[in-house]
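Researcher: I'd like a structural prediction for the single chain below. Treat it as a standalone chain; there are no partners to consider.
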Amino acid sequence: MYAKLSMRNAKRSIKDYLIYFITLTLCVALFYSFMSLSSPNYELNTSGQFDLSILYTYIKYASYFITAVLTFLVSYVNKYMMKRRKREFATYVLLGMEQKTVAFLFFLETFIMGIISILMGIILGSFFSQVLTALIIETIDGSITFGFRLYGDTVIRTIIFFIIIFTVIGLFNVKTLSKIKLIDMFNDHKKTEIQFSRGKWFYLTTAILALSSYVFAFLSIKKYLKVMHISSEYLPEKDRLPIMIGIGMLIGTYLAFYSSAYIIVLIKEKFTKFKYKNTNLFLIGQLLSKINTTSILMATVTVTLFVSIICFILGPIMSEWVSGYLPLRSVFDVKIDITYKDIRDIEDRPVIDYTKVHNYLSQSEFEIEDYCELERYFLEKEDFNRRRKDSFPILAISLSDYNKLREMAGYESIKLGNDEFAIQWKKTIPRNDIENYINENSSIKVGSKVSSTDLKKCYTEPLGEGIYNNYTECIFILPDKECKDLTIANVNFYANTRKVMEYEFAESVSNFVTEWFKEEYKHLFDKYGDQHGFKTIISVNTKTQQVNSAKTTALMMKFLGIYCGGIFLIICLTVLALQQLADSFEHKMKFKILQKIGVDKGETSKLILKQIGIYFNIPIIAALLGAGVFLYVFGKQTSREIYSYMGSDVFMMNIAISIIMVVSIYVCYFIATYLGFKRNIDN
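Model: Treating it as a single chain, here is the predicted structure.
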């Protein structure tokens, strides 16, 4: 008998909480699809240039962490279901059923609903995994045979993970429900979270504090926009202001929702014409009855929606960022950059002989097609001691070395006349900044000779980041004869191979160079390696590794952005939907009375639409406004990188697509909630 009762109640729960059931199924599907990427049975044919194991590992652990947030939704919905049905449970107890049995039956029916959602989610997740695979293939040019696939290890992992969540929460609810007094079961729906027992001045003060928090956040944003581009070794405001902005916005949001109930009371008291127009009095009463009990929850939903929108937007944007940055830093097949930043004695300058590295590459199956040992020079020997972050010297390279790099990168050579020099700039530097620099620094002194330049001799074609000195944005190109008497700062090595290196060999190059440097330049490693770290002296990169890292990072950011944004968004919308659907059950009689006193169904439908619209629109509008402020500051702070790596059009397009996705999902939940509310009132 109990089994039949549990099954009947489970079917009814799925029908009454269809939105929750669909949300749970989607969450399981997302979890399964992302976890399937880390399955040992997952087959994706990639070229030897790629190794996606790091991507799979990060996705797996991120899936555990992110989906654990689902525990909140399961717990919240279970409590909501339990709260709505406590009168029903009390009736069972009055009819002679033990309270522990009632609690166990509730656990059993929610567990059955969870198992059904897991099974359906796994089936749906198998199709989602094919979508993820298509995104990977598009990024790395791999190949796979599409079809319905179930990975046994991922299926077991998914079932165990969600069963643990359902069981832990279910048993906790059993314990809670078993100890509730019968009288409390009947009266639980009368409890409220906030009562106006503290007086109107308390809530008016809260509203004023909320406004003050927003003003504080606005002033902090204004100040941050002024200081964020200031180049300084130590400027505390640049790190402190973003935290202050976040705290101000967060506190303001919670205080605003906390005081919103009393603000509605003031509107009710002051605007009598509005109050008595049509069904506004009923609507105000409905709003007060819910805001009184859910103000903190609504604020939390708003903050979570903000996080969701930012994830949806930043995931694809950062993916494009990484992909756009790759051509600027990965120009040559092998790149060894040396820095003197942590070298304290000028005699220890890392003037490196790369003969053994050249031989190692030449003797491999990939061979060297072309290479350059790039010597960088100080204009003055004393420049070696300039170590402040904002005063590192701009270095110089010879015209022949520069033209060699341009030739290897596929660019035309340049020419310099007598008493001339050129400047190579980072791609991210705006043209206006270059013009301003040339206007103020059109000539430099090299020894006893003065050389000049102009805008025609400024170049921005990407040659990698390693040719520039630390904390500088350009490098001087001088005629070869003018470099002979200059002090060498260091020597870098760049090479192109005849064939694209496989990932395994690329790693072996990095390992070989590391061991070679430790052995060949042991005095540098012993003197500076332990104190500052080996990588502060030498940096080894291959195009294969950089491409693999960039593609992996781009995929991971895109996937995690979609996953985080999707999970948080549907959880928030489900909570909002269930609030309104529960309200349709609790206040069904009120709507029936409205119809009996002459309010037609059309007016009732408008009333329902207004009520749901207010509860859905306030959090989403507030979250969108917050996201707009965040993106404005983000765009101002990273304008150079956005322009250089992706372009403003791509940046705005990604924002538009993300907003359309969020609004589309929101509209689907809104319509489903509206139809469900009407159905519950009419039945």
